[in-house]
Amino acid sequence: MSNRQDTQLLPPSLLGRLERMELVSRKIFRGRLKGERKSKRKGQSVEFHDFRNYVPGDDLRLIDWNLYARLDQLFLKLFQEEEDLHFYALIDASESMNFGTPTKLHVAKQLAAALGYVGLCRADRVSIQALGPMGRQAPALRGRASLWKMLTYLDGVDSGENVSLFDGVKDFALRNSGTGVAVLISDLMDKEGYESALRMLIGRRMDVFVMHVLSPEEIDPPLRGDRRLIDVEDGDSAEITLNHYALQKYQETVKSFIGSIKQFCAKRSIAYLPVSTETPVETIVTKYLRERGVVR
Amino acid sequence: MNLVPALTNPLALATLALIPVGIIVLYFLKLKREPVEVPSTYLWAKTIEDLHVNSLLQRLRRSLLLLLQLLAVFIAFIALLRPGYRGESQGQARTVFLLDNSASMQTVDRNETVSRFEKAKQLILEKIEAMSDSDSAMLISFNDRSETVQAFTTDRARLRDSLERVMITNHSTDILGALKAADGLANPRRSSEIADVKDVQVADAQPADLLIYSDGRFQTVTEFSLGNLKAEYIAIGTSDVENLAVTAFSTERNAERPSEVQAFATIENFGKSSVSTTATLSMNEQFLDAAAVQLDAGEQTGLSFLIETEDAATLSLALDHEDDLEIDNIAYTGLSPLRNVSILVITPGNTPLKVGLETEKTAKICTTSFLSPSYLQTDEYRKRAADGVDDLIIYDTCSPNEMPATNTFFIGALPPPMLVTNSENPNPPPTASESNTAQPTPPTQPPAPAPENSSATVPPVEGSDADAATSPNTIWRWATPESSVSLIDIERTHPLMRYLELFSLLIFSGRGIDGPPGTVELVGADVGAVLAIAPRAGFQDMVLGFEIISRDDDGNPVTNTNWYAERSWPVFLLNVLRHLAGAADVTGAPSYRPGETVRVRLENAITSPTVTRVGGAPVDVTSGPGGTLEIIATEIPGNYRVEDESNLADLYAINLFDPQESAIATVKEIDIGYESVISADTTIDQRQEFWRWALMAMLGLIAAEWWVYSRRVA
Fold this sequence. Notes:
The complex is a heterodimer of chains A (296) and B (714).
Chain A: H1 3-9, H2 12-19, E1 34-53, H3 65-71, E2 75-83, E3 86-91, H4 104-121, E4 125-130, E5 140-142, H5 147-156, H6 165-175, E6 181-186, H7 195-203, E7 207-214, H8 216-219, E8 225-231, E9 237-242, H9 244-267, E10 271-276, H10 281-291
Parallel strand pairs in A: 3-4, 3-6, 6-7, 7-10
Antiparallel strand pairs in A: 1-2, 4-5, 8-9
Helix pairs in contact in A: 2-4, 4-5, 6-7
Chain B: E1 2-3, H1 10-29, E2 34-38, H2 42-52, H3 55-62, H4 64-80, E3 83-86, E4 94-100, H5 116-130, E5 136-142, E6 146-153, H6 156-165, H7 176-186, E7 208-214, E8 229-235, E9 244-253, E10 260-269, E11 275-283, E12 286-295, E13 300-308, E14 313-319, E15 330-335, E16 341-346, H8 351-357, H9 360-365, E17 366-371, H10 379-387, E18 392-396, E19 407-411, H11 435-438, E20 477-478, E21 483-485, E22 487-490, E23 507-510, E24 513-514, E25 520-525, E26 528-536, E27 539-544, E28 549-551, E29 557-559, H12 568-580, E30 591-592, E31 598-601, E32 610-613, E33 618-619, E34 622-623, E35 628-631, E36 638-644, E37 647-654, H13 659-662, E38 669-672, E39 675-678, E40 687-689, H14 691-713
Parallel strand pairs in B: 4-5, 4-7, 7-8, 16-17, 16-18, 18-19, 19-27, 30-37
Antiparallel strand pairs in B: 1-3, 3-40, 5-6, 9-10, 10-13, 11-12, 11-14, 14-15, 20-24, 21-23, 22-25, 25-26, 26-27, 28-29, 31-35, 32-33, 32-36, 34-35, 36-37, 38-39
């Protein structure tokens, strides 16, 4: 991996801004290690959480002696535990992502890197994985120093992992039993459908974000005339006469496709974030994702 | 809208109708699709499923390329139907186009860029283009003569070619010949006399439209009936014109001072406004004089110029004024050179005649041969007379068997009778009682003095074997017996009699003369005419009724008159040389109209004459018998020089000089026979062709289709 490649994924100007950000989880999860996030566990932080009756065996240091003086009863003072957050970025590395200028895969890697770096800066446990066999080699990262590892992994992610969305997510779910924030970065153009994959993530009780990456060429194809369309993933072909009417029909289909995803996500509390590859990553992360509550 | 199908064959039409079907079929069978990679056909497949619901209709409805192709074919189909708009449909299927190509059609009217002739051709061309396949037309051009350029045909290409061949001329106009040419099939004649009950019409009448493209500048035609011809006069040009014309231009030498020449010109304003300009006279292409001309509309004026020249010269008078018709703005004339004439004198001996013909002045202009009457019997004479080698033959007291092919002067003798056939002679031959007065002079015999004892009031002439076919009205004869003569009158205005004072003459014996019709009495006496001149088939014969030198009984010469002692004798002989032998032409060179055949009589010594237009090219000439030259290349106005090895032999000029042509204001109504034909509006009956526009639209559509296609493929 070259430095030039690093800066392509995460420009230095962006790094500075990312350091001041923080990943937002709409749910509170149990972490594994001490961290900076509220945990479900009661623990050692300075933030008061609750009182409870003393039962024998409790740590006497936690008894609130002031209350005992007033009420003559033993109460334990519970504090909020702060643990780390598990952040998963799942990159769809199928061949269809290798499309557009810049490619959707590149934008997906940039987004994952940016969000991952935010997590690294906040001592979260960050795992960026490409769906498919590449995902198994993905390291679990923690701490700012792991940026280099993360970028190395991302640089190794290449298109051609033609696994279906469901298979990829299933593989991920089987390998990672923990909960946390999962961001699926994909174009969702899977002929078997995206629904089962998203259901599986929800089933793992993860806070799921779907970043739907589409290139402008997919939204408004610059194609006219009699064409034979060849699917780069499976070689499937479709003959079509591309006239105004057909294109209009296609755009209606795209609109309907996006609408159905939105609806599906809304019903299941999945945050759906459409992303166009023509929008710079800086804008997406610092403005767009911030507005939608992914980061703050 | 009127459609004239260019394709009438049903098979061709059916094939044409199959083309759109073929295009649609080919469109659907078109297998070549440009392969293009897409990230996924997932969404496209959904689109195609939707499209398949009404795929065929959608393709037909939405494919711009197909629509453009079909539209292009449709427009081509329309173009093949020759769509056009015609204000009025023609009444007849047969049309006769009469195209005026006379001089006045050269006019370029104001607000026009082309001449009337070109405009007329354009209008005819439009008519030809508007013809349907079944229409036939005929094209006749007319000026002072008519020419059937193209007989009836349905072939538009031939009509167009024929029309292209018609050229403008400088001729005057006579429409009658053209009308007669157009008349043939429309009004077939009967086989024989009118009112013959058995007569049948030889052919069915074929009515036709007669379209006259002219400015109407021709004589009204009275002796013509249109019959089945439906005449339509298309007036070319306007009546608001401007034209100043030279309508006459001639020169005349002063008879007394031959070096002094007067040139006369008539200038006429045929325009609608007054004109002020100058007229420039040039001699031998050099500026000589100029005169101011100020003329109101319709007025004319005369100009005269005095020129000093003894030589032959060419003159031109140009109006320095630009108007609608140019050809009449310049006029030409010439001063003919003095000619050297050849004279043959047949005389038994006539010293006064010989002295008179050999003076210093006459020697300059003539070559004289004196021969005795016996020469008349030789073959050499007969050939000489028949060829017209001499310009004048003087028969002194003798007469030939046949009149020579030249001018003659008989002194004391009569010309031989002319032979005419019975059919041409309306009068019966003279009876015996009349024959005394009708006897011609016997050939070869000098007229002997009348017998002294003759009791007849009119003395018979010796040798009374009158030709039975001879008419008394066509021959020369003695009107009175021989007697002393006292002169009474002289025709002083005749060129031959100029400067003569004859009343002091003494004539001892002479006779009055009766000549053939057309005889002009030059000298009248108490016995009648004693000197007369008469025309004969282009020549002139002059007869003197008394001898100059008589013979006494012994055959010795005695003088019959004292004329030879008078000053008038050499003057008279000089006049004879000048005017009868043709040595001098004091009236200047003759002028002919364009297209007229010019006949020039040249000196017999000239063997290879050439004719050149002054400032122009040589002209082809045809030498005729007897030194006459026939020139038919007379189209271009100008001065023409007849030369013999660079020596000027004669001059003539070609000028329009036709007020009918110069008055170029277009006539609104013409009369043909008893019918008036009013000018038709030339704009309403024009067919506007749209097929060219349709073809251009088709080409545009094909270009658009190609553009759309290349945009899609790119």
